[in-house]
Amino acid sequence: MLSVNKRKKIVPPTMIIVFLSISLLLTTTINTNHFIAKTKSSNNTEQSAVLQPDIKEYRAEIHWVKTNIDLDNKGKGIVTILVNCTPEENHVGLLLGNFVENEITEFDLENSFAKTAGYEVDLNISSSGSRDYDYIFYLSETTHVNTSESILYQITYTGDFVLSGQLERFQVNPELAIINLVRPLWNITLPYQELTVVLPVDVSDPVVTPQFLNEIQFNVSAQMSTYDISYYKTGANLLVFNCSKTSMGLKAPFEATFYLSLAYFSLPNIMNWLVLLFVFIFIAGALVLFFVVINVRNQAETEVSEFQKDLHELLKSNEK
Question: For domain 45-267, is the CATH number 2.60.40.1730?
Fold first, then answer.
């Protein structure tokens, strides 16, 4: 009687490869999506820097706010915010609310302080974790604070405008970078706000001309028609973009959107990660298919060999 040995169940190595490939693929995909999501800034209604009017110790009449951003070719920069105000009674500091996510990477405590009545006062900075405001800027001492004397706050930090999604490749034109700088909103009327951006663009001419701006593909969004805009160069011959607004209403937005040749920046290319991801999927799939074919062939050869052996033994027994 013909009998064939039962095939032994062997866990193929392809199962291990498939498991590891899927795990690595999911990890890569999650990390990539997390990075992309983190680079997207929230809408204006969520990006409000709020001077809390219901907390008496932080009340002040704001006269103007000026921000300077010294931007480098990697999309990072030193940000200095100047706030000129007249404090109310028992004033102890400022509360500033939701900045664009991931913009602030580190505060510069040595260059963050307040000046009033000829004195310089250190600032203590802490994160509040509140939905209404992110940071509390405490005056280290209030001896010289007087309601008849204005205070000039200087807040300095390192900003990452790529990670916060405010500087990225322009999807419509791959030769351009789009810079969309969103400044915090204030829940009070603001007489004057100004933004100055020092760009990593060398200006060789004595003055910044329209021809030069055209050569570097610099252009300003039409949405900025309500701003006062000017261009000049620093002592280091770097291009400076300046814009300002007056008589700003309650929570009035302040955004500067402009375009510049991508040649002046060295930005991480998210598409490279996607290409690598697809290449990895292709290679992993090819390897899995290869090992599946080899495993199937080996199992088939084993079964054929065992069948032939059993058949040979059966024929020998019949001959006897």
Answer: yes
